[in-house]
Design goal:
The chain has 119 residues and is mainly beta. The chain has no helices and eleven strands. The protein starts with a strand and ends with a strand.
Length: 119
């Protein structure tokens, strides 16, 4: 069973940076896609970024392109989301998720970590 544990959230001023981590365990992830999603107050959960564990593909939402960077450390089974130039509208609970490459939807989710950006 896949387990995902996020960390690294917190309170930061606008323009600041945070790095989120997602520690993955429970299986081999070589054929998986790892994603970050977020859900702001009163909003639907939305896609932020994704990376194939092999590193072959990286994808970003338009709202974070140029500011956020997704990466992974195979040795640590950890996926990161480096967030720079943060804006108040980036305030949300951030979730790590995983799915097999061939799957349509994500089937494993972390518990989420709160990111709050003050103006």
């Amino acid at each position: 069973q896949v387990q995902l544990v996020e960390s690294g959230g917190g309170l930061v001023q606008a323009g600041g940076s945070l790095r989120l981590s997602c520690a993955a365990s429970g299986r081999t992830f070589s054929s998986y896609v790892m994603g970050w999603f977020r859900q702001g107050p009163g909003k639907e959960r939305e896609f932020v970024a994704a990376i194939r564990w092999s590193g072959a593909g990286i994808y970003y939402a338009d709202s974070v392109k140029g500011r956020f960077t997704i990466s992974r450390d195979n040795a640590k089974n950890t996926v990161y989301l480096q967030m720079n130039s943060l804006k108040p509208e980036d305030t949300a609970v951030y979730y790590c998720a995983a799915r097999p490459v061939a799957a349509v939807s994500y089937d494993s989710w972390g518990q989420g970590t709160q990111v709050t950006v003050s103006s």
